[in-house]
Amino acid sequence: MIKADRIVRTTCPYCGVGCQIDLHIVDDHIVEVTAPFDQPPNFGRLCVKGRFGTDFVHHPSRLRMPLIRRKLGTPRQQATIDGFRTASWDEALDLVASHFAEIKRKHGADAIATTCSAKATNEDNYLFQKYVRAVLGTNNCDHCARLCHAGSVAGLQLALGSAAMSNSVAEMLDLDTFLITGSNTAETHPVISLFLKKAVQQGGAKLIVADPRATEMTKFATIWLRHRAGTDVALFQSMANVIVTEKLYDLDFVNKRTEGFSAYAKAIQRYTPEWAEKITGVRAVDIRRAARMYAKASVAAIYWGMGISQSTHGTQNTLSLANLALLCGHLGKAGGGVNPLRGQNNVQGASDMGGLPNVFPGYARVDDPEAQAHYSAAWGSALLNPTPGLTVTEMVDGACSGAIQAFYIMGENPLMSEPHLAHARHRFENLPFLVHQDIFFNETSAYADVILPALSFAEKDGTFTNTDRQVQRVRKALPAPGQARPDWQIIADLGRRTEKALGMTRSAGWSYNHPAEIWAEIASLTPNFAGISYQRIDREGGIPWPCPTPEHPGTPYLFAESFPRGKGKFHALEYELAPEEPDAEYPFILSTGRVLYHWHGGTLTRRSMLDKVYPQATVEIHPDDAAKLGIQEGDMVRVRSRRGAIEVKALVTGRSPRGTVFVPFHFAEAAANELTIDAIDPIAKIPGYKICGVQVEALGA
Ligand SMILES: Nc1nc2c(c(=O)[nH]1)N[C@H]1C(S)=C(S)[C@@H](COP(=O)(O)OP(=O)(O)OC[C@H]3O[C@@H](n4cnc5c(=O)[nH]c(N)nc54)[C@H](O)[C@@H]3O)O[C@H]1N2
Ligand SMILES: Nc1nc2c(c(=O)[nH]1)N[C@H]1C(S)=C(S)[C@@H](COP(=O)(O)OP(=O)(O)OC[C@H]3O[C@@H](n4cnc5c(=O)[nH]c(N)nc54)[C@H](O)[C@@H]3O)O[C@H]1N2
Ligand code: SF4
Ligand SMILES: [Mo]
After folding, report:
1. Fold of 6-58
2. Which of 29, 80, 138, 272 has its CA 20 to 30 A from that of 567?
3. Best mutation site among 306, 603, 665 for ligand 1 pocket (most ligand atoms within 8 Å of CB)
4. Range with the lowest mean pLDDT among 71-75, 178-182, 289-293, 623-627?
5. Which CATH number fits domain 150-341: 2.30.30.40, 3.40.228.10, 3.10.50.40, 3.40.50.150?
6. CA of residue 402 to ligand 1 center, whole Å
7. Is the dihedral of CA 487, 488, 494, 495 positive or negative?
């Protein structure tokens, strides 16, 4: 054991579980990561990423100086880092401020698009959207939540009026019955999966898993519904049909707390389990068993992930789950509710802070005059733009049509994470001005005009809000690499300079000495956070919002008395096919997602020792399909869709069903998003990353 000079308590930078970690530091290097046993949410547990994956902060390729493209102007080509020269902060920020000001004058504020970052802190994101709204004057601010839980958010907003996870991680230990669907929990929320497994093994909880793919959680399931991909609406509506037909629903709850039941009950009459069996491939008898198990439970929770949300029917899929919870009254109780497991470390926070095109911090609508007056006064802004802005997917489209003249991207990598990458690259080539603020030079930086070097979680103070709404501290443990600055400082400096370039006389207030001051401003403006302060978090640990006063303990589960929209609303749904089902030419379904060891576009984990464990892009293929195509485990194969082709190593396994291949999207040299389709859900605007048609061809060993 090496003896640490210092140990700094902070929050894991990877997933939404928000594990508390202790960084052991020797000579300004992280030498070990441990977890405190007495702290929620993880109580001493960590997964491999938290334990061994934070070494990316020391990688020699960290950005240390602002960079400016050598040949500024369009048409712009993809460049390596050699295509950029270093610049001072003064030069880089003045260039950005003057360009934004000029574009605003010439084309209007709505010609500027921005994304904030679910990797950055609440304070970074709050300040980012304040800059975008109060100085640039547009609501074109979104982030990766659009590519993630947008379907869940849209569905839960319609049904309940709130989209956060309703129950806490701590409640998982005492679950009675729960349903997991479209979530590979053991690889994507590993520490949560430990509590869920314990609930089954030690607590005797009953688990229903609905997933086309065998995951580790299916091994713990009492019932595994292995439905065909894309048939969720049919599956869950037929469970609702059973619950209504057999009168298993909670009449009292339905009467007191919901609306639209009779129309809904009528609409689902035709969704019999026998009808659903033909569509989903799940036996009617199993649908009945699962429906009875969920309905008869004293309390039951639903957990879900991208298999539900990332669909061109993501909103409908979510509504089909909300309908089940409303029918059975499984809401507003400890251990009972609806829980979209949040992915990024601070995706909950980036949304809460108003990093969305239609809402201010605290989810007040941008077109609500009262909310406008509130934030205009707070930010010293005469008039805030009342028109909801564009979503990420629409902003990327706008780059092509000329509607978008500049893009400011903080802590995202759309040129790995957007669907149909060839198309996305084409759009970025046509963009007149791109600013990228990141800790590394990634696939998106390659198209930037100006690159602003930011600090990682380990070098700054702030807060992240995890999947169960706990606001937790991020603490500075290491010095800044080179001249890199924390995101909030970059934004504040840019705010001052842009105001000057625009000749604005008022100031939205950009003088902060420490993120605690930014947090105090957030707490003073949004009732959900009013009772939370750095001092309190230091004393008590994470606090779950809503927390309206300093005496309030925070709220572990939501909806005990009512729903934010008043009554919960039933929605009758139609089952529809995915926009590109497999056919004779492209006979396999391509499903994309994650593996335990890697993170999204790989910017962080491929610069970590985790890359040694999982160094290469893979495709999972069923043994029967592999045999037909002459593919052996370890062979290289070409996977081709109508949009592109990649070469990857075959894993021959029964995890994915026959006719489906699974490719993780972490590897730039074989990017799954070269293949995916960019069709989106009409309401949530989320792409359907989980289904498109592909061919598979053996290339040999
Ligand atoms: N290791 C690791 N962990 C991560 C991340 C990471 O990159 N790496 N990313 C984080 C982020 S941002 C997110 S959003 C989460 C995502 O966490 P998950 O949603 O658990 O991740 P995915 O790999 O996308 O898995 C989706 C699951 O949906 C299933 N599925 C596919 N099609 C369908 C369908 O039609 N219906 C249903 N019901 N299921 C289907 C797949 O079989 C798979 O089990 O993970 C977070 N955690
Ligand atoms: N095919 C396919 N595509 C998908 C998905 C899928 O399942 N399949 N899932 C989608 C989902 S759910 C998500 S959430 C998106 C994720 O998409 P992105 O958010 O684009 O992906 P990340 O790779 O997490 O990008 C985060 C970036 O932030 C940088 N960063 C880290 N910390 C900081 C910081 O403190 N400050 C700043 N400024 N930068 C920082 C990292 O270096 C990295 O470049 O991908 C989506 N794309
Ligand atoms: S479960 Fe998530 S938060 Fe916890 S250590 Fe793993 S990646 Fe980090
Ligand atoms: Mo996500």
Report:
1. N-terminal domain of TfIIb (2.20.25)
2. 272
3. 306
4. 71-75
5. 3.40.228.10
6. 34
7. positive
pLDDT in tens, 404-433: 999 999 999 999 999 999 999 999 998 999
Confidence of residue 36 (pLDDT cuts 50, 70, 90): very high
How is domain 588-698 classified at the architecture level of CATH?
Answer: Beta Barrel (2.40)
Q: Which residue has the tokens 């927390």?
A: 547
Distance between Cα 437 and ligand 2 center (Å): 13
Q: Which ligand is nearest to the CA of 54?
A: 3
Cα 556 from Cα 363, distance rounded (Å) = 19
Average pLDDT score over residue span 621-646:
98
CA pair distance 611, 604, nearest whole angstrom = 10
Nearest CA to ligand 1 atom 32: 307
> For residue 113, what are the CA distances in angstroms to 345, 431, 653?
23, 11, 43
Angle between helices 89-107 and 487-501 (to 10 degrees): 50
Is residue 92 within 8 Å of 450, Cβ to Cβ?
Answer: yes
* Run of H or E residues at 300: strand 300-304
Tokens for 60? 């020699």
CA separation, residue 657 to residues 35, 214, 317, 401, 652 (Å): 37, 8, 21, 40, 11
| Alpha carbon of 104 to ligand 4 centroid (Å) | 31
Q: pLDDT class for 74, splitting at 50, 70, 90?
A: low
Q: What is the CATH number of domain 67-145+346-525?
A: 3.40.50.740
- Residue with the nearest Cα to atom 42 of ligand 1? 213
Q: Which residue type occupies 260?
A: G
What ranges do the domains of the chain cover?
A: 6-58, 67-145+346-525, 150-341, 588-698
**Tokens 């733009």, located at residue:** 385
Cα–Cα distance, 96 to 108 (Å, whole number) = 16
Residue 125 in contact with residue 520, Cβ under 8 Å? no
Length of the chain: 701
Question: 349 CB under 6 A from ligand 3?
Answer: no
Residue 335 in tokens = 């251990």
Q: What is the pLDDT of residue 164?
A: 87
Residue type, 555: T
Ligand 2 probe mutation, 147, 188, 667, most atoms within 8 A of CB: 147
Strands (E), 249-395: 258-259, 300-304, 337-340
Is 192 touching ligand 3 by the criterion CB < 6 Å? no
With cut-offs at 50, 70 and 90, classify the pLDDT of residue 173.
confident
Rounded to two decimals, the pTM is 0.97
Contact 350, 117 (CB under 8 A): yes
